[in-house]
Amino acid sequence: MATTTGRAAQARRAADALRQRIVAGEFEDGRLPDEHVLSRSLGASRNVIREALNLLRDENLVVRRRGIGTLVTAHTYRHGLDRLAGLAEELTSYGTVSNDVREAQVVPRPPPAIAGRLALPPGSEAVYIERLRRLDGSPLSLDSTWLAPDIGRPLLERDLAGQDLFALIEEATGAALGSAEVTVHAVTAEPDIARVLDVADGAALFAIDRLTRLSDGRPVDVESLRVRADRFALRAVLPRS
Amino acid sequence: MATTTGRAAQARRAADALRQRIVAGEFEDGRLPDEHVLSRSLGASRNVIREALNLLRDENLVVRRRGIGTLVTAHTYRHGLDRLAGLAEELTSYGTVSNDVREAQVVPRPPPAIAGRLALPPGSEAVYIERLRRLDGSPLSLDSTWLAPDIGRPLLERDLAGQDLFALIEEATGAALGSAEVTVHAVTAEPDIARVLDVADGAALFAIDRLTRLSDGRPVDVESLRVRADRFALRAVLPRS
């Protein structure tokens, strides 16, 4: 039962409570209360609090500065899971979203697995777009997108650096998006993706797969996102039935 | 642009496509097609496919057996994010859920941060329950739950090893649950939690915070879950508006 009563377990629980409060935006001035205050409010010893703060530091959520205290390094952005919204649509309230367009091209022979998910006819081309999302300049996610050619081709002329794909699709094609099937995984960062997202090798990331359909049900957009877990959390309010 | 065109990037994309198909339950017999078939269907070289399979092996999603091929090690269970359901309620279709009850007790002085989230009056006790969830015997998640005392006390006499807390709350108290606010983080496993969940140190986990309310809005249940990311994915179908 070491996990439930040992110091490591207590520290994990204290870190959970603090992570929740950080994500909820409770520490508006960016500074956590001192260890004594945290110790009282969380009902844990100073040693446990110190260990909890170290866990949050390892997650890149806080930095600890001698003589200053514990500072929240970056806001963690909450993405609602209640409706289909592009990242930028949701995140504009948090800061300025920009994109490094790493690839944007017509691919003559897309992988059959992708063509299958997009229900493309045999021999059809597809459009591939890869963007690194930044929020206030810092990397947030790497988004790889496959689009049906009639949907994707008009987008290649548009402002891919500044705009959400969802907004661009609806604006450029006049087609209304209907719904998306989203699957969320947690993974660790391989070295190449860690470099791009500016996190340590092995850091926790979300891997999000999203298949988006037009309102008539036609699948047009297959996306694979890698999102920094130190800057991003998913949030939903779920009804019981 | 090494990430978009190099072999590591291609392998990551191939792994993404395969992970999606594994989670969707496409390989019903538990065996992936051979490298040649995967190479054709994913439009990638054999070397890239091999690297992608190694990534999935590192995630614990598949094992590779010489002379046999690549086998899906465990089903990955999809948890819907469209309504409030207990894990066991959703997972019974996948297998048998059981719980090791690690702690179940009245705590005279719960941490103030917890008492605050549960809106407990000053000096109130609370009930703490910690359970290791198993699906078909294998660890899936560690669930730490704080309950308001009037809701939690009757549960201490119930079948905590066999039943979902949500079902128990509704059955034992006659109170109907209303909704929950859920925040989902991705984290890596510290050594103590890795041991309990039977994963490698540093493996990806979901950390899920859930505040559940009765139908009258009263908060009664604060949960912190650590869920193995190799056995679990979140899924939602999102409408555009």
Topology:
Two copies of one chain form a homodimer.
Chain A: H1 2-5, H2 7-23, H3 35-42, H4 46-58, E1 62-65, E2 69-72, E3 77-80, H5 87-91, E4 97-107, H6 112-117, E5 126-135, E6 138-147, H7 149-152, H8 165-173, E7 177-188, H9 191-197, E8 204-214, E9 219-228, E10 232-239
Parallel strand pairs in A: 3-10
Antiparallel strand pairs in A: 1-2, 4-5, 5-6, 6-9, 7-8, 8-9
Helix pairs in contact in A: 2-4, 3-4
Structure characterization notes:
The structure is a homodimer of 241-residue chains. In chain A, the strands form 3 sheets. Chain A has a 6-stranded antiparallel beta sheet. In chain A, strands 1-2 form a two-stranded antiparallel sheet. In chain A, strands 3-10 form a two-stranded parallel sheet. Chain A starts with a helix and ends with a strand. Chain A has 9 helices and 10 strands. Chain A folds into 2 domains: 7-72, Winged helix-like DNA-binding domain superfamily/Winged helix DNA-binding domain (Arc Repressor Mutant, subunit A, Orthogonal Bundle), CATH 1.10.10.10; 78-235, Chorismate lyase, CATH 3.40.1410. Helix content of chain A is 30%, strand content 35%. At the A-B interface, α1, α2, α3, α6 and β7 of A face α1, α2, α3, α6 and β7 of B.
What would CATH call the class of the largest domain in chain A? Alpha Beta
Largest interface: A-B, 76 and 76 residues
CATH superfamily of the largest domain in chain A: Chorismate lyase-like
User: Which structural class do the helices and strands of chain A define?
Assistant: alpha+beta
CATH topology of the largest domain in chain A: Chorismate lyase
Computed CA radius of gyration of chain A, to the nearest angstrom: 21 Å
Tell me the fraction of residues in β-strands of chain A, as a range: 25-35%
**Distance between termini of chain A?**
36 Å
Assembly state (oligomeric): homodimer
> How would you characterize the largest beta sheet of chain A?
6 strands, antiparallel
Structurally, the number of domains of chain A stands at 2
Number of strands of chain A: 10
Mean pLDDT reading of chain A: 84
Percent in helix of chain A: 25-40%
Element string of chain A (H = helix, E = strand): HHHHEEEHEHEEHHEHEEE
Rough outline of chain A: elongated
The name of the CATH architecture of the largest domain in chain A is 3-Layer(aba) Sandwich
Q: Helix segment count of chain A? A: 9
The neighbouring-strand order within the major sheet of chain A is 4-5-6-9-8-7
